[in-house]
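B., you asked whether I could sanity-check this one before it goes into the benchmark set. Here's the sequence:
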Amino acid sequence: MAPITVVEGRRLALSNLEKVLYPATGFTKGEVLHYYATVAEVLLPHLRDRAVSFLRYPDGPDGQVFFTKNVPPGTPEWVTTAEVPRVEGPSRMVLVQDLPSLMWSANLVAEFHTHQWLVDTPDEADRIVFDLDPGAPASIVQCCEVALWLRDRLARDGIETYAKTSGSKGLHLLAAVRGASSERVSEYAKALAVEAEKAMPRLALHRMTRSLRPGKVFVDWSQNAARKTTATPYTLRARPEPTVSAPVTWEEVEECRAPGRLDFHAADIAPRVQDYGDLLAPLLDTDTAGTLP
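And here's what the prediction gave me:
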């Protein structure tokens, strides 16, 4: 029988704690749960009031990996859910609002993915995101070059940008915005991606065409579509090792000369939070959100 743990008054059955989920390092499910408990203070504000899609990998990244968007069977009644608009019709999804919900979700063994809008205002985007994806032999080093150009370009429109690793090969740029639909934000993001390609034709690419991508950085603007989700800050990723989508400083981006410089694992995050706090906390301040030109 799975051990019962009480988290802030909620009873949770946490299963298979000794199961190795990351064979390359021996990282167990119990360590996954410990990681999320440790970073909950900085992670929860980025999850709260956002419908969550779970990319589940219950047998590790080498096993079956699948998305769960609807409320999973067996979800406790105290976990908050909400009806959200979807192309195929309204759907009920999970909201991770507190520590018990976070630990219940972590027990599913899943990456956390969220939309660029809050569940109460699905018609208005509150984020703009760029997913910078390198095509080999390009790496995160080249992503950083593109990121710096985009940071400066967005600043000219009065939009302050923040960076995090994808937890995989690339880099994510995020900014808080207000007063625009997801469609309008997507249009703006695409225009900047096209502009980046014109400014750096040997480095940046705004089209997804696979044959064009080797050696370049694909500036994926499409993540801003209302239906799309992006890996939430601080989520573990379903990769061979327990890598994290970790916030980084612009100084780290500017100084990145080798891919490993921005490779962060679960054990790295608590010390970084102690040193820096939440580098993405400004995204949560609606008073400083930018407006699209």
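One thing to flag: The first strand starts at residue 4 and ends at 7. Otherwise nothing jumped out at me.
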